[in-house]
Amino acid sequence: MDEELQLNVPLLRRRVPNLTTAARTAGLRAATVSNLCTGKIPVGRAEVRTLVALASLAGCSLDELIIRGSGIRMIETGIKALDLLAPVVRGGTVGFVARPNMGQLVLLAEFMLRMKKRGFATVFWDPGSDAPGINHVQAQSEFTHATKEEVYNRIVSLRDEKDVLLGLDRSMVLSGELLSLRESLKEVGARPITIALVDIKCEVVDDQGAYGPLDTLWRFDTDLISRNIYPAIDPVASTSTVLEGAHLDAVHLATQQRARKLLRRYRELRSLVTAQGFDKISEIDLQLYKRGERLESFLAQPFFVSEPYTKKLGEWLSLYETLDDVKRILDGATDEIEPSELFFRGRLEVIR
């Protein structure tokens, strides 16, 4: 029953911007509130007085504070583009679709590192490949195993302690071993297992059903790669089932839809501007183009695993921070800022 309850974190953070300070003032432990917000403490195990105090701080009822029975919950990765446009579903399957040298294994390694910070156990089902970037994935995996039996035993040993992020190659799908593993785990009642599927040989870039049913699709984009914008996730083609059926907080859903619409139009205008220049577009389209350019730059983000190469410290933004900053860009609050000032950075408030 605990798994069916979740805290309405976007609502809480929106109504109580300085949540840590407010929690202390209300006599709550900041660590407890933080763990509730990140999911480290299930809502069902929280003290009633804690939940009542949080509802009082937010000026809402317990029914508004606690979301019941949706069965679908996103996992924050701290990566702006992913959390905004194509969120990870807890216990779901994420598919990476990329051409060679587009950074899919670097993103998988970063995903694993960030989930370790969230308290997940990270397991890599190693296909025995020496593909460039596989070493990064191995380094960020707490456990690396070569066989289905080893992976099964590891997950079973962890099932009462942690959620698991399992990374593996498409070859395990084709062989039927992933399906067999899923069936075996159903019998032992393991905690949610979030699966990240990559295609190390990059054979499925044009195949929509390459992995079977997915909860989240991250499709890598050649144009973003050519301009060194990372993570190079196509903002229009990448998506998530958590966006369907109103499983997102209303503010998140509205912001995501506005951002996707702007980026779609920006991409159309970019082709026109490249071919004919700015003189061929209207003032309204020019404003949309500039805002789209700023949003695209803002969604570029330094990774922790890439620090030795980029010389930039990795950045983690909470979903609340991402939504707040994206809304400012969409509403024109950054119209006087050059896109280059927004590129490959964290929050807007630390830019100036």
From TrEMBL:
<dbReference type="InterPro" id="IPR050053">
    <property type="entry name" value="ATPase_alpha/beta_chains"/>
</dbReference>
<keyword id="KW-0472">Membrane</keyword>
<dbReference type="InterPro" id="IPR020003">
    <property type="entry name" value="ATPase_a/bsu_AS"/>
</dbReference>
<feature type="domain" description="ATP synthase A/B type C-terminal">
    <location>
        <begin position="248"/>
        <end position="334"/>
    </location>
</feature>
<keyword id="KW-0813">Transport</keyword>
<dbReference type="InterPro" id="IPR055190">
    <property type="entry name" value="ATP-synt_VA_C"/>
</dbReference>
<keyword id="KW-1278">Translocase</keyword>
<dbReference type="InterPro" id="IPR024034">
    <property type="entry name" value="ATPase_F1/V1_b/a_C"/>
</dbReference>
<comment type="similarity">
    <text>Belongs to the ATPase alpha/beta chains family.</text>
</comment>
<protein>
    <recommendedName>
        <fullName>ATP synthase A/B type C-terminal domain-containing protein</fullName>
    </recommendedName>
</protein>
<dbReference type="GO" id="GO:0045259">
    <property type="term" value="C:proton-transporting ATP synthase complex"/>
</dbReference>
<keyword id="KW-0066">ATP synthesis</keyword>
<dbReference type="GO" id="GO:0046933">
    <property type="term" value="F:proton-transporting ATP synthase activity, rotational mechanism"/>
</dbReference>
<dbReference type="Pfam" id="PF22919">
    <property type="entry name" value="ATP-synt_VA_C"/>
</dbReference>
<keyword id="KW-0406">Ion transport</keyword>
<dbReference type="InterPro" id="IPR027417">
    <property type="entry name" value="P-loop_NTPase"/>
</dbReference>
<keyword id="KW-0067">ATP-binding</keyword>
<keyword id="KW-0139">CF(1)</keyword>
<dbReference type="GO" id="GO:0005524">
    <property type="term" value="F:ATP binding"/>
</dbReference>
<keyword id="KW-0547">Nucleotide-binding</keyword>
